[in-house]
Prior knowledge:
45% helix; alpha/beta; single chain; Rossmann fold; seven-stranded mixed sheet; globular
Amino acid sequence: MKDGHPSETAAYVTMGRAVAHARARLPGFSDPLAMQLLPEELRDVTERRLRGAWPRNRRECVLAAIAEVMERLMGPRTVMIDRALHNLPPAAQVVIVGAGLDSRAYRLPGISGSMVFELDHPATQALKRARVADVLPVARQLRHVAADLTRESLGGALQRAGHSTDAPTAWIFEGVITYLTRDQVNAAVAAMAARSAPGSRLLATYNEPNWVGRVLGNRLSAWRSEPARTVFSRDEMRELLARHGFSVRADTDGLQRVVELGVAPSLIERTFVRFHHVVIAERG
Length: 284
């Protein structure tokens, strides 16, 4: 991410959620706020894509292709994580690390009794707050924590914001691991574990080693200015979480997710999305 600029990746994943909501072809998915959260350019591209308009230039053509892939990625991924938040204990907290343009605090009834902490870089968070200035959250309380985690520890940012280590926490670590080094991932999970009361859960996403990353990774990273850095095998992720006291309850790749949701896999799931995992773990 460029200094002082909102995350491009956060905007792209929100574009995928906006398309998935508009097309309404995935059971259990709904994100009516996604379109409102988009920056103006991407909102315009998304609306034109949904109308079937022909791309006006090369950039719009690339963005339209990203929207198609992101719809297939974000719909099932969002449903899986949303489901894991349905049965939180009444006093549970929710911490969204690298919140981007996430809308859960505004749309998920399952977290209506929770205090939600959204942590992200100040530039991305400023865009998000401007977009939802007229929207009331459904969460009991929402705290925006502007933090550059390359300069401040996760634990320090949360302590400053009033996060409690006495109540269970649902950690949403979505779309972040890929862009960190292994040492940074380990430090983040260690910080979550240190602040997790019994009954806490971790909902994370990661990529396994794959041909897409090897062939296209450098080009995509250069185009987005947000380089992909880290991949994990299933066994490596399980071992990392176990080292910090988290037991894996589910780990699904992109192909497994659409099958579980009763949707016929497309070529996009069979090639690009299948290597992207959602892992759900609990701390005893």
